[in-house]
Every structure is written in structure tokens, then in C-alpha cells.
Amino acid sequence: MSELHLAAADYRLRGISAWWRARCRGATAWRPWADSAERVAPAGGRDVRLDLFRGLALWFIFLNHVPGNAVSWLTVRNFGFSDATEIFVFISGYTAALVYGKAMRQEGAVAAGARILKRAWQIYIAHVFLFVIYAATIVFIAANADNPHFITRTGIADFLEQPGFMFVQVLLLRFKPANMDVLPMYIAVLVGFVPMLWLLLRRPHLTLLASAALYAVAHGQGWALTSHSGRAWCFNPLAWQLLFLFGAWCALGGAARLAGLMRSRAATAGAVAYLVFALTIVTSWRVPALADAIPAWLCAWMYPISKPNLDVLRLGHFLALALLTVRLIGRDHPMLRSPLVRPLVRCGMHSLEIFSLGVLLSFVAHAALVQCEGGVAMQVLVSAIGISMLIAAATLIAWGGRIEDSERPARAPALQPVPVVAG
Q: Fewest Cβ atoms nearer than 10 Å: which of 89, 127, 174, 400?
């Protein structure tokens, strides 16, 4: 073999060896305590606050779904008009715009629209499977505990009486047991997001105005989607789409346009004043002496504060909370790098799986409290166990994702051509 052939072979071997060493150095070991956000994007890319507060909303939703749970008093719904649902919907709109807005710019409207519909389909399938497991869990626990209260309270009695007909209603999103109302609303909003995103990228302000107009008409005319019984959905997509679209508008440049307002002392003072007002009203629901001090004209103007139709008071409360949160917790806040918030971030990164598991665990926790007749100590215990299981599930999902990433074959760097000379 000629010297040129030997040089070429040695060059190729050194190139392959360097590629293999680089691949081994880049392999991700199993570190369940590692921050999941580090794997998704480098610093300055993904806003960790989105996953942090979405994870917090998922924890709140789990706690709120356990009836009579003293730990749920720590959630946001006990301090104002809005609750974890507003946080979840806004952040979902924000992240959807980041992901699918980029896809629509790079791949076109058709490809991005197909991606959005694919995601809606995945959530739909998850909803159907969740219903099957949820209903089976309820029936199993009710039968073994000899407590039909579980069936009546969760609203699956109609399904058990007419399983064939009612399962079709499940597939049509017209039958939803207790605590399973969020995903159908999200599916409907996500399907409508296909044309709205196209418009947002071209006429963002007009699109947001059109969304607000739809919200106002839905309120004024009573537009809503109905269930099999003729009652309106617990979350009206025609109303909640406004918060979802506002989140998308903020992600596509709206937040930058509002930066001056959010830094304004007047806006901050107004937000604080509104939060104090909301806290006072909510406290009056539990303190009769304070309720008597609320003027009758104010009660007539405020009530009812509709959650299904995203009442203006709820929307305003969420916006006030969001303004103060953005001011107090910046994108580079040291808290975001603390190991203490990693479980929240990890749960927020896998919201669909954690929400579904939370629905199941909330019923199991409720059944445990009913059967054990537990007091506050038992409520704290089942809440802690449930949160721990959510964290464990998110950690396991993240670990599985890292294994899949490490097992994907890496492409070897292209080798420089070497002249081949006959021997």
C-alpha cells in the first residue's frame, strides 16, 4: 500500500476517533435531579418562568380538585377572583405562539396548521384515555369501598346507565365528569388557533381586537357550547380564547410593547389596589361581618362572577397578578436557578401528562380522605403524597426523554476528501 493510502486511512481513523470522543463527552447520563430546562434550551433561550408557573398551576389544580382539602387554602383562588386555570391558559397560549409561530414563519401556514391540529388530536386522545382510566378508577374504588357517593359526586352515573350512548358523547366532548373540563376547552381553543395565529403574525392588534369582540359577543348573546344535557360547558371556549390569544399576542411582541406600562409606577399601584380589593371581596364570602360592609350596589354590579365565561373581574385579577409577577421575578432572577424550583419547572415542562395524572390522583386523595375520615393532618399527608407523585412522574418522563435523545444516532462530521492514487 502506498504512503498516500496509509495517510488517507490514518486521517479517516483520526476523524472518526475525534467524532466518537465528542459524542461520548456529549452523552447525557441519568441525573434525575438535573434541571430539565437545561436540556431544552441554553440560557437566554427558553423562559424558565413559563414552566415554573405552569407547574405551579398544575399543583394548584390538583390541590383544588380534592374537596375539603385544607392545603388548597394556599392556592391563588382563595386570595382573589382568578385561579390556576387562568395561569394555565395564558401560559399555554404564550408557548403555543412561540412554537407554532416559528413553524409558521419557517414552514408556511399549512405545515404549521397541521402541527397545531396534530397537537390538538394528541390532547383529544389523551382526554379519551384519561376518561376511560378515570371512570374505571371511580367504579373500582366505589365498589370496593361500598360508597356510591363517589359515582354520584363525580357525575359518571349517567355514563353507567347508558354506556354506549354516553361514550359517543365522550368522543364528541359533550360529556365530561368532574374535573375533566379543562382539556375539552383547550382542544377547542387550539383548533381555533390555526387561523388566529396566521392573523396574529400579520395583524396582531386587529386579531386581538377581534378576539375581544368575540369574547364580548359571547357574553352579551350567551354563546356557548353545550353538553349532552343541554347545559353549557364549564369552560366556554368562546370566552376563554381571549386569554389564550392574549398570551399568544404577548409572545409575538405584545409583551415588549407593554414593557413601558409594566414598568409604570401608576400601573403597579393600580394592580396592587385591585388585588387588595379582590382579596377583600373574597374574604367577605367567609366573614359575615365584612360581607355586611360591602355596598349593595357593588354586589349587584359584581355578581355573579362567572368562571365558565371568564368574567371581566377574573380576567382583571389575573392581569394584575401577571404584572406584579413580571416586575418582581425577571427572566434572570436567581430564584429560577435554585434547585428548589426544579420540581415545579419539571412538572411544567410535561403539562399534559402531569395534568392527567393530577386528575386521577385528586380523586384517589378524595376517596382516601372520605374513607379514613381524616382531619387536617391527613389532608396535608395526601396532598404531600400527591405532589410527590407528580414530581416523580415528571422526573421519570424527563429521564426517558434524555435516554431517547442520547440513543439517537449522531451524524459523523463530513470527512475531507483525500486523493486516491493507484499503487
A: 400
Distance (Å, whole) CA 81 – CA 83: 7
Closest CA to 103 of 122, 119, 121, 87: 119
Question: Within a domain: residue 8?
Answer: no
Is the dihedral angle over the CA atoms 204, 206, 209, 211 positive or is it negative? negative
Number of folded domains in the chain? Answer: 1
Phi, psi of 81 (to 5 degrees): -80, -35
CA quadruple 409, 37, 51, 62: dihedral sign? positive
This prediction has a pTM of 0.85
pLDDT tens string 105-142: 999 999 999 999 999 999 999 999 999 999 999 999 99
Residue 2 lies in a domain: no
What does the H/E/C string look like for 170-214? HHCCCCCCCCCCHHHHHHHHHHHHHHHHHHHCCCHHHHHHHHHHH
Per the structure block, which three cell numbers stand in for 202? 400579520
The verdict on residue 279 lying in a domain is: yes
What is the spatial distance between Cα 123 and Cα 138, in angstroms, rounded to a whole number?
22
Task: Tell me whether residue 224 is in a domain.
Answer: yes
> Which domain range does residue 75 map to?
36-403
